[in-house]
Amino acid sequence: DVKVTQSSRYLVKRTGEKVFLECVQDMDHENMFWYRQDPGLGLRLIYFSYDVKMKEKGDIPEGYSVSREKKERFSLILESASTNQTSMYLCASSTRTDLTDTQYFGPGTRLTVL
Amino acid sequence: DAKTTQPTSMDCAEGRAANLPCNHSTISGNEYVYWYRQIHSQGPQYIIHGLKNNETNEMASLIITEDRKSSTLILPHATLRDTAVYYCIVRAFDRDDKIIFGKGTRLHILP
Fold first, then answer.
1. Interchain contact B106–A (C-beta under 8 A)
2. CA–CA gap between residue B9 and residue B20 (Å, rounded)
3. CA quadruple B44, B50, B56, B60: dihedral positive or negative?
4. Could you give the CA distance from residue B93 to residue B27 in angstroms, rounded to a whole number?
């Protein structure tokens, strides 16, 4: 089974803090994604990466950055957390060896910024 | 914007088949239909996908119309654990592998 893990299920930070959200997948997947989910807005893509050290902006990259130094790990960074970044953050991975490129999701990190 | 249209919510009695519709009238020839679901407080879970033929796996069946403009996800014997938001997504296999999620259908399984 594909396993995607995220470093924390719940996180509370203060405004202005630098926040790191870690995601690790154990299936040698090339592609990794970060989404956020908010009530009434569904899942929105923040950043994605299709290779080590590669990154692409998604639909809402402002206020975020990412790091992909190793194939299995994709980090989401909030340089200076703000209250409007309180949300559920979901990581996903997929592989190009599967023609249909199904994405597999982690359990999510619920971040609260005070 | 999501390329799919789904009802906001549906109810289904426990033990009965749950049929979740999805319209995707602008689907392209190289786009697959995917279904995911999200149970409260968990990450989205892949259910099934298809291109043009009907598909079945251990979780569900996917019926795609001949013109591919709509599809139906069927949970054959719904249980209370199937209560979730179900997302229908269309996506091509290309370098830009974004999934665009719409609002989905909130399925309530009634005891």
1. no
2. 10
3. positive
4. 13
Question: CB within 8 A of B88, min separation 6: which ones?
Answer: B4, B6, B20, B22, B24, B33, B34, B35, B71, B73, B102, B104, B105
C-beta atoms of B42 and A102 within 8 A: no
Q: Which amino acid is at B33?
A: V
CA dihedral A35, A36, A42, A44 (to 10 degrees): -50
Write the residue in B41, B46, B96 that is nearest to A104 by C-beta: B46
Give A81→chain B minimum CA distance, Å.
22
* Residue B8 touches partner A, C-beta closer than 8 Å: no
Determine the residue among B98, B103, B105, B106 to mutate to test chain A binding: the one whose Cβ has the most chain A Cβ atoms within 10 Å: B98
Structure confidence by residue, pLDDT tens digits, A36-92: 988 877 788 899 998 899 999 988 999 999 999 999 999 999 999 999 999 999 999
